[in-house]
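Dear all,

This email documents one entry for the complex benchmark we are building for the journal club exercise. For each entry we list the sequence lines for every component of the assembly. Then comes the predicted three-dimensional structure of the complex as a token string, followed by one or two observations. Please use this as the template for your own entries, and keep the labels exactly as they appear.
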Amino acid sequence: MLSISNLSVSVSDKPILKGLSLDVPAGEVHAVMGPNGAGKSTLGYALAGRPNYEVTGGSATWRGEDLLDLEPAERAAKGLYLSFQYPVEIPGVPALTFVRAAINAQRKARGEAEMTAPEFLKAAKAAATALKMDFDMLKRPLNVGFSGGEKKRMEVLQMALLQPSMLILDETDSGLDIDALKVVADGVNALRSPERSMLVITHYQRLLDYIRPDRVHVLAGGRIVASGGPELALELEAEGYDKYLEVA
Amino acid sequence: MTTALDLANPDTFPSRRDEDWKYSDVRRLLRTMPPASPVGVVHGGGPFFEHGGDALTFINGRAVGDDHFTAFGDHVVRLRFVSEASETGHTVTATVGARRNSKLIILESHEGAGSAYVAHNRLTIAAASGAEIVRIVLVDEPADALSITQASVTLGAGATFAQTVLTTGAKLQRFETRVKHPGEGTRVRIDGAYLVEESRHADMTTEVDHVGGNGETDQLTKGVVRDAGRGVFQGRIIVREGADGTDARMGHHALITSDRGEVDAKPELEIYADDVSCAHGNTVGALDESALFYMEQRGIPADEAKVLLTEAFLMEVVDRIGHEGARERVRAWLMERL
């Protein structure tokens, strides 16, 4: 279970999250929705350990272990994966080289044997086929010159290969047309399992038609201000965030 | 400085008051003539040993056999400047040439052992018309050495000259290449990469002088500076009056990965002709923080992520080496030093 309690985070001394509490039990998918500027991306970055996202109070644990004291790479090795809203371009490092380096760095940190090159290639080819990606694209520098949709597919491909146990999806639907959205959602849904937890951060309800959440939370003013079942997402879509802005 | 550097004459030691040496002040480190280096013995075959070819070797300023090499057909020459000296100085004068329509690959190494030596290498390279010269240089010297290499390159019409220099610097290290470019279909590629750590200093100075029209120059230098290292790039491309149709591109890009590192860059295009296509780009920056975080988020520890990004940055220069065997050797050499 991911357990966040009373988490406060500042960026450049400006408080963004102000005592956020949230539990995501193993096997569940929770959506965090909220207006622009509510702190949705900050939540993802703070959990992943981005520099300059300063935790000023509260705690976050994954499977009972404190996350916030760990380096970003250590959190990843514990199974935490953040799918970026804007995936970063890595010039000069081919996507395949990058993903294999990541897999083996995580395995090494966990004391596991490295994945061999043939094993890796086989897995990468299968993942690319499932995501309807041209395998040759994976030989190009990661994300360099990729379209928005290709970058999001690359994020899901990395998920499929890294097999994380705690997934945070930050606005994964942005920049995707409906066909690409279905492919990406299928990729994410394929990872649903009783051991995995997922936190789906999104502004719009649209993504949740394809990745169906068990619970929906409303983030406004740096706190969770309402929680409910999937019907809450539909209500937000119909009525907007206005009433929560007043609460916050 | 009006006269050529001569280790025997301290009056010729350049200082920062000489515009061309303002970032590499020799006089600050060397005021008197250093005692002469002793006779040395060469060990091993150098970093390009496995590539075979002929060897032109100098140790502590003395030639082991010939001091010049001329290619008639297809040749590989391993040009080795070996310094194994302490607190002494030596000068090498060497000549390498390629006859008409011949092809010469110069695999050059600067192999330093010992400490605090002063090395001055003067090299003359000449490619006759239609000849092709590829010069690949690995410079590996002690942190307290002072070393200056000055190459003068002349090219015939329709010749090709492609150079790639990789260095890790020294206490003060200057690598100078001056090319007389005749135009007339002659092509020059003049690349370099420096990786300097601790308090090392690497100076890459080049001058390509287009005296005739319709010539091409393509230059890419990349550098990474760590700790209190210092990188210097001085690149000058001159296009003389009448050298129309010249196509020249110059790029210098450096990363500084510490607070104490320094890069001094002086790219210069001096154009006196009308109908030319010239461009230059110069950037100095830090490692991309967002790329580093992205890599860490995927499980790659920060130190490993920095090495991967540094490698990717510098390898662009290595990737431009056309000779596959030498390219892989250079790649491995650089990887060992990242």
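Observations: The mean pLDDT of chain A is 94. The radius of gyration of chain A is 18 Å.
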